[in-house]
Every structure is written in structure tokens, then in C-alpha cells.
Amino acid sequence: AAKALAAEVLALCDRCRAERDADEWVDATEGEAKLILGDIEGAVDAYRRFIAKDNYLWKVSSTYLNARTIAAAVGDNDLGRKLGVLFGDPKP
Predict the structure, then answer these.
(1) pLDDT tens, position by position, 14-62
(2) CA-CA distances (angstroms) from residue 10 to 35, 41, 78?
(3) What does pTM read for this prediction?
(4) Distance between CA atoms of 21 and 85, rounded to whole angstroms?
(5) Using CA atoms, how far apart are residues 17 and 66, in angstroms rounded to an integer?
(6) Contact 47, 68 (CB under 8 A)
(7) Side-chain half-sphere CA neighbours of 70 within 13 A
(8) Which regions of the chain does DSSP assign to beta strands (E)?
């Protein structure tokens, strides 16, 4: 069920971009959906775009927490470490 919902979320992200109704959260949301779908490289690319937008620390921290929660739910420790490096966690 989570994968079906994640696919719908990706379609909504695309629609928001096409309608120019997307804010910085679209990249973070896309990253989360792609993690759920197992598209790790796509998720990392989306998170990089999100981080590059010079977001506030609380936004980046919140997004990192969500990403780590998804990684833990799928039981992927290597993914957790990769996300830690991406988000600048000194102890991923």
C-alpha cells in the first residue's frame, strides 16, 4: 500500500512542477517517495536538490529525520549511512 501511495505522490510532485506550483518541499517529498519505491539514486538526487536550495536548518533536519525513518523501516543500514553523509551528519 505504501508503494502505491508513493507512486501517487510522485505523480503529484510532477504535476506541481508542471503547473509551477512547487515549493522546496516538493524535492524532499519526491525523495521520500522514491526511497519507499526503492529508487535510492533518484531519492538522493531529489534530496540533493532540496539541500542545495539553501533551506533552513530545521527543514533539512526534518527531512533527514524522515529519510532515516524510512531507511530504518526497510532495514537498510547502508542507506542510513549514505543519507547521513548526504545530510552532513557527523556520525551517520
Answers:
(1) 999 899 888 889 999 999 999 999 999 999 999 999 999 978 999 999 9
(2) 11, 15, 24
(3) 0.91
(4) 30
(5) 22
(6) no
(7) 25
(8) none
